[in-house]
Amino acid sequence: MRVHYSKVLKEQSKLKIEAYLLDPKKCAWCKGPILPKSERILYPVTRKKFCSRSCNASNSNSVRPKRFANEDKFCSCGRRKMGKAKVCFGCIQDRKADRKMQDVLLKGYKGAQRWVAIRSDARRLMDLWGIEKKCSDCGWAIHVEVIHIRPISSFPLDTLLTVVNSRSNIKYKCPNCHWIFDNIPRSSSGRTEDFES
User: Is residue 164 within 8 Å of 97, Cβ to Cβ?
Assistant: First the structure.
């Protein structure tokens, strides 16, 4: 009479499981028994250290606790920090106030592209100051650009960014008014001169 190998394996696995259930492995966290999920499979259970994912997570959190964002709410200067920031917004602004044009000048670029960082800083400052996004000449509000009244290129490289991006030197203009401002000669007051055709 022939005996199927699979039947022998099933009987052996049943015997192993029964022997394991008499003295099961203990969970490292809750000290409860680690039981097999299936009646036939014992191998994964013998390798486990925890009875569930919950016990595993509890153990991991006790060994390596999470770093909460609320731990360091205040900067070294005493002002409140936002989220996971290392310093507060005021300290960032103080550091930026000391920068000069040559510090943010993009190396390897020619022409107007060299001043990209200065222009983006000007846009950020306009948002920060809460100035309404509409053209200072015609009132158009759908698309506006931040312009420098005195061109960036006219400042020496050792000029502070706070001078270049001062509130009196930047404005919102629509693309049409921006073109007129850049291309039509102005009087000393800054307005376009009347030309006879």
Answer: no
Mean pLDDT score across all residues of the chain: 78
Give the residue from 63, 86, 108 where a domain finishes: 63
The whole-angstrom separation of Cα 41 and Cα 28 is 21
The angle formed by the CA atoms of residues 46, 21 and 4, to the nearest 5 degrees, is 80
Residue 194 inside a domain? The answer is no
Considering only CA atoms, which of 47, 52, 13, 7 is closest in space to residue 31? 52
Percent of the chain topping pLDDT 70: 79
**How many structural domains compose the chain?**
3
Domain end (from 42, 75, 96): 96
Query: What's the pLDDT band for 192 if we cut at 50, 70, 90?
Result: very low
What is the pTM for the complete model shown? 0.50
The parent domain of residue 23 ranges over 5-63
